[in-house]
Each structure stands twice: as C-alpha cells, then as structure tokens.
Amino acid sequence: MTNYNPRYLADLTIKPIVTEKATLLMEQNKYVFDVLPKATKPEIKAAIESLFDVTVTKVNTLRLPRRKRRVGRFLGYKPQYKRAIITLQEGDSITLFPEV
C-alpha cells in the first residue's frame, strides 16, 4: 500500500451522490461518490478509508459523458467528472445523513 498525503486524499472526493439508484445501492452496502477525473482506484480506496474509517473491498469507476450547455447561441460543456461506486466490507457503513 502506497502512502498518500491525507490532505491530497481529502480533495479527491467531491461529493456523495444521493439519487434514487444510489439509495437503492446503499442497501447492498455500496456508496456512490463524485471524484476528480484524475483519481485512481487505489487513491479513491485510500481516501474513503481515511475519511470515513471503513474498510473498502471494491471500487468501480465510470467516466460519464460531458454534458452540453447552451447560453444563447454559444455552445459549451460542463466540466467532466468521474463517479466511483464503493463497496464496503460487511458490517461497515457510511452515515451520509447524520441525525440532527
């Protein structure tokens, strides 16, 4: 296991995804996060393990296509991002909604 800078790891994950599909995956102990496009699977695994103090068994990543955005007659693109589906060890969980 390579030693990563904890400050660098914290910046790899952008946000957790809370969609209908992502909440269905939570029942299977899988969590979905947006991560930086340059992040690798070992870096994502190390980041999630250090941030949430859990054991990651599997990391699946996908790069979604860039989305077109139009402003008047000008055509542009939103920034591309990468999505990671994290599978945790049985018994571990991440609390995305802490009780207020």
From TrEMBL:
PROSITE patterns registered for this protein in UniProt:
RIBOSOMAL_L23
Which GO cellular component terms, listed alphabetically, does the Swiss-Prot or TrEMBL entry include?
A: ribonucleoprotein complex; ribosome
Q: Which UniProt keywords apply?
A: Ribonucleoprotein, Ribosomal protein, RNA-binding, rRNA-binding
Molecular function (GO) terms listed?
rRNA binding; structural constituent of ribosome
Q: Which domain of life is it from?
A: Bacteria
A GO BP annotation: translation
Enumerate the SUPFAM superfamilies for this protein: Ribosomal proteins S24e, L23 and L15e (SSF54189)
Record's Pfam families?
Ribosomal_L23
Tell me, in a sentence or two, what this protein's role is.
One of the early assembly proteins it binds 23S rRNA. One of the proteins that surrounds the polypeptide exit tunnel on the outside of the ribosome. Forms the main docking site for trigger factor binding to the ribosome.
The Swiss-Prot or TrEMBL record describes its family as follows:
Belongs to the universal ribosomal protein uL23 family.
Q: Quaternary arrangement and interactors, per the entry?
A: Part of the 50S ribosomal subunit. Contacts protein L29, and trigger factor when it is bound to the ribosome.
Know the name of this protein?
Large ribosomal subunit protein uL23
Query: Which species is this record about?
Result: Stanieria cyanosphaera (strain ATCC 29371 / PCC 7437)
